[in-house]
Design brief:
Shape: globular
Bound molecules: pyridoxal-5'-phosphate
Number of strands: 16
Number of domains: 2
Order of helices and strands: HEEEHHEHEEEHEHEHEHEEHHHEEHHEEH
Largest sheet: 7 strands, mixed
Structural class: alpha/beta
Number of helices: 14
CATH class of the largest domain: Alpha Beta
CATH superfamily of the largest domain: Type I PLP-dependent aspartate aminotransferase-like (Major domain)
CATH topology of the largest domain: Aspartate Aminotransferase, domain 2
Strand order of the largest sheet: 4-12-11-10-9-5-8
Radius of gyration: 21 Å
Distance between the termini: 27 Å
Length: about 425
Amino acid sequence: MSRSKELFEQAQRYIPGGVNSPVRAWKSVGMTPLFIEKGEGSKIYDVDGNAYIDYVGSWGPLILGHSHPRVVKALKKTLKKGTSFGAPTALELELARLLMDAIPSLEMVRMVNSGTEATMSAIRLARAYTGRDKVIKFDGCYHGHGDLLLVKGGSGLATLGIPGSPGVPGDLVKHTLSLPYNNIKAVKEVIEREGRDIACIIVEPIAGNMGVVPPKEGFLEELRALTHKEGILLIFDEVITGFRISYGGAQKFYDVKPDLTCLGKIIGGGLPVGAYGGRSEIMRHIAPQGNVYQAGTLSGNPLAMAAGIETLKILSKNGTYETLEKRSQFLWNELKNIVKKTNIPAYVAHVGSMGTLFFINGEVTDFNTAKACDTHMFSKYFREMLKQGIYWPPSQFEASFISLAHSEEDLENTVKAAHEAFKVL
Ligand SMILES: *Cc1c(COP(=O)(O)O)cnc(C)c1O
């Protein structure tokens, strides 16, 4: 038995499902997970000594690849001075400044420890600021596991939210409305009817948690116009897209300015982090400046700040996003070519360095179309890729990420592997 299998068997006795986040269990591809020993550049190494080219990148944060020497150095330097003080440090200010310089809609920012915390807190703030309770989200968008956002789309528009998990009381989600992504008509109808009760719309400006689903042309612009008219706050959840799509995130890429922005993943350089920010007129309602309570023992942790700062400094250099774009174009175009030459129904979606290979006949534009994918075919593809040393996300509904550490050779090897995989699908 492999060491990974041994460890997984033991882990299941101590940790529910053997993992500390569900998707890591590889259930949807019918396998058991690899236990990882280390990561370096574009590659990860499992506890059995196998190397893989990694397209998970810790689910988004590792845009520089694993253990980038400069990030490691910054961490070591910070570590020597202590790990946490529960008191302000200059590092928090430095990261806040970097975020604001990059993202014009951020006039103030609050650091938290995860993307989940960022979205929960942003919504609390939006409700307090507007004095309204209702929240609109979109089917297939993920905003962390906060109760009020763990909601399934009801049948029919604007039905009451249905809890997305046992343990979430119906009462807690009755103010959450889930609408189909990319469907501006559905949003209009709800706003016409109950716009005055709606505090905010929260949206992934590029959906990345049902596989990558880009916004249709005009979708974000219309959300902006509609919310503006009704005094509804527009929240962009850029936990994935922030510093992934451009140095200023998806909002810069599409040139749409939200009222509030949630960040995470990349801004922590691989350490636990989150942040939310926006117009200072709104942000100043947060305690202790205002009375909207939100706190965190480890918020603004020096190690997370140091890793984030170093990551952003590297990303801010000229040409980084062009390099990512070029490599990304190569990989996804080659995959498109492979798809074209077979009769296996598949569809490639990518924006910048995030993308998904969907096994479906036709386009994926929302959660309903995403759900129509052939997940069985995806599992086969995943297994064939893994056999050839490619660590692809173990679910049809996750984004694959290219990092600056992926070399042209890595990408060529990946294309070769995909070519072989398609032969046996
Ligand atoms: C990952 C993610 C979150 C949650 O972040 P955590 O740090 O896992 O809590 C929220 N929103 C989006 C868009 C994400 O991709």
